[in-house]
Amino acid sequence: xxxxxxxxxxxxxxxxxxxxxxxxxxxxxxxxxxxxxxxxxxxxxxxxxxxxxxxxxxxxxxxxxxxxxxxxxxxxxxxxxxxxxxxxxxxxxxxxxxxxxxxxxxxxxxxxxxxxxxxxxxxxxxxxxxxxxxxxxxxxxxxxxxxxxxxxxxxxxxxxxxxxxxxxxxxxxxxxxxxxxxx
Amino acid sequence: xxxxxxxxxxxxxxxxxxxxxxxxxxxxxxxxxxxxxxxxxxxxxxxxxxxxxxxxxxxxxxxxxxxxxxxxxxxxxxxxxxxxxxxxxxxxxxxxxxxxxxxxxxxxxxxxxxxxxxxxxxxxxxxxxxxxxxxxxxxxxxxxxxxxxxxxxxxxxxxxxxxxxxxxxxxxxxxxxxxxxxxxxxxxxxxxxxxxxxxxxxxxxxxxxxxxxxxxxxxxxxxxxxxxxxxxxxxxxxxxxxxxxxxxxxxxxxxxxxxxxxxxxxxxxxxxxxxxxxxxxxxxxxxxxxxxxxxxxxxxxxxxxxxxxxxxxxxxxxxxxxxxxxxxxxxxxxxxxxxxxxxxxxxxxxxxxxxxxxxxxxxxxxxxxxxxxxxxxxxxxxxxxxxxxxxxxxxxxxxxxxxxxxxxxxxxxxxxxxxxxxxxxxxxxxxxxxxxxxxxxxxxxxxxxxxxxxxxxxxxxxxxxxxxxxxxxxxxxxxxxxxxxxxxxxxxxxxxxxxxxxxxxxxxxxxxxxxxxxxxxxxxxxxxxxxxxxxxxxxxxxxxxxxxxxxxxxxxxxxxxxxxxxxxxxxxxx
Lengths: 183, 574
Ligand SMILES: Cc1ncc(C[n+]2csc(CCOP(=O)(O)OP(=O)(O)O)c2C)c(N)n1
Ligand SMILES: [Mg+2]
Known about the structure:
The structure holds 2 protein chains of 2 kinds.
Chain A: E1 3-12, H1 18-28, E2 33-40, E3 47-56, H2 57-68, E4 73-79, E5 84-95, H3 96-101, H4 105-111, E6 115-119, E7 123-130, H5 132-143, E8 149-152, E9 156-159, H6 166-182
Antiparallel strand pairs in A: 1-3, 1-4, 2-3, 5-7, 5-8, 5-9, 6-7
Chain B: E1 4-6, H1 7-17, E2 22-25, H2 32-38, E3 46-49, H3 53-67, E4 71-75, H4 79-83, H5 85-93, E5 98-104, H6 120-124, E6 130-134, H7 140-152, E7 158-164, H8 165-169, E8 171-173, H9 193-205, E9 209-213, H10 215-219, H11 223-233, E10 237-239, E11 254-257, H12 264-270, E12 275-279, H13 285-288, E13 299-304, E14 318-321, H14 324-331, H15 341-345, H16 348-363, H17 376-386, E15 392-395, H18 399-407, E16 416-417, H19 428-438, E17 444-449, H20 450-456, H21 460-466, E18 471-476, H22 481-490, H23 505-511, E19 516-519, H24 525-534, E20 539-544, E21 554-555, E22 564-565
Parallel strand pairs in B: 2-3, 2-4, 4-5, 5-7, 6-7, 9-10, 9-12, 10-11, 12-13, 13-14, 15-16, 15-17, 17-18, 18-20, 19-20
Antiparallel strand pairs in B: 1-8, 21-22
The complex binds thiamine diphosphate (TPP) and magnesium ion.
């Protein structure tokens, strides 16, 4: 079956230990998580975790169902790259002297839309936001100056549909609660 | 005005509020505040001190599965918390509702490798339905209420509450509310009428339909619904190992057990049926054989309360996401009254072959082993009959398990307790303790191997202390028989680490004050069974079993379910 990079978004209650419970669902199947990120969502009190993982669609569908089975997981969705707008942030620390010696430096920053976050005598910290291929391209250019430190964030994403599909789910659950209370 | 009480008292009160009457457990340092309070609740909470924490969990499992209630376990931290793991994992795969409370070190010692601190959350998360660490006393009522709700609803399972010392000794304002709603968890999904219609129309058009009853039937008390549907539409019923006893053994539509050591008829016909109604089962690989050759011709209707089971192992043609009882009740009026006489007759030939080629050898052997050793099947069947086929069968794991499951007969529902998904040796004796406590009016038969008995035989002490009467039958082949069988069949008779040098089990039973006897030959068996049945309370039979005895039929490992050996060299020809 065809393997692809999938982005998995999981909406959860704010409970300790959930990230572990969810990530072991991937690791049990030997799936390598390529990135993980977690933050508040647009709904008050609800967290959104993002994972990326290369696998086939059928496996991802099974994983999604197993994630949704966890208590305190509200909903899980998976996307291919064309269904979402996504970004990653990368930070690069390079020796300032090397950069100053290099004529190309200013052009690289411009072309790659990178920002200088901090500049000292010894080092310069650059930031670039983009897809992995873009932050990687900059990495490769800077590598010749010697990169002192590098880090790339997990993928964050927003779907192309107008709202988080998920608010509809919350409305349904609220109706369910009212129904149970009535009985 | 609410009352100010300690966390320990809150745990006791919460257990009472959840209708708990029996707890299985073992005390120790970090659970002592709770045990101290439990002393005051001894009139309401009957604590059974098992001889090992693994025994406590298996006993709670036996209790839960025989009674339908939640089994409760309380143990201390560290080694006690790690001793519960096997049972918790077993309950998780076999969908057994448990609430397991572990004591934990004080909050400010967490993460410091304090004495008897283990990472209970980290260890139990992968094998529980929910696991939660309680750090503050005020969380106790909520956590306990949530634990019971989660353990007992939907697809049941084990919950672990890791309760720190601070939460036990601190105080809170007592206020208890049962929980019946969790936003992220819907254990009673709305039945979709379209799904029921689709299933009914498949069944109505079927010419050779078959029902496979899983554990879900019993978990949702749907035995009668199952039988009603089968009878109305005249559909043969097979069961998984954990679905056994959902239909009586002698019901004309009961065609036996599916799976590796199941009956030939239902295994063969799995690959001939045009429609399979799978009720509350998860298509374990011991049931399906190699998945790609499993029922390729059949349209499969899968009923399950856990939608993560749909298409996990076997692709379903249509699904009903509901508890088995609800789904079967909805199907019944939509299913046509029907007759499948010809299809049902196709079970006759494999049944006949199994009777003459396999069962006869077990039930009425005409050869006599040199030392008079018996076959497991004959022993199991005679004991089953001695109980009027009304007993609760508890098995261990191995040949004894398969033979007991195959040859015990069931007239009442919820009559089989066995470790299916995990296959835990040592499950039997403690589970039988729990079952007897849950059903004091029923005779409980614990069938086990010489290997498995020795894994948890310390629970004879629990039986002694609480006067728990279980009929204990050791099917003693002086071998780890199940492994031996594979060595004989697939490893050139190289019996690596399977012969057992065993103690005198009769003396062991006697040491605990239980009458016991060694049954060496076939001739001695009937009288021994009679003495056992006549005795009130625990009685142990150590039965001499032929080590060469093997379990057949056997679906060839790694093959399709209709590829079946009826002895070491012969395959069933259909
Ligand atoms: C805890 C555990 N360890 C090992 C096994 C593997 N195993 C399965 S059956 C079996 C042999 C059991 O021997 P015995 O209890 O004497 O039963 P028999 O098969 O002889 O009836 C073993 C070792 C297991 N299922 N569980
Ligand atoms: Mg044995």
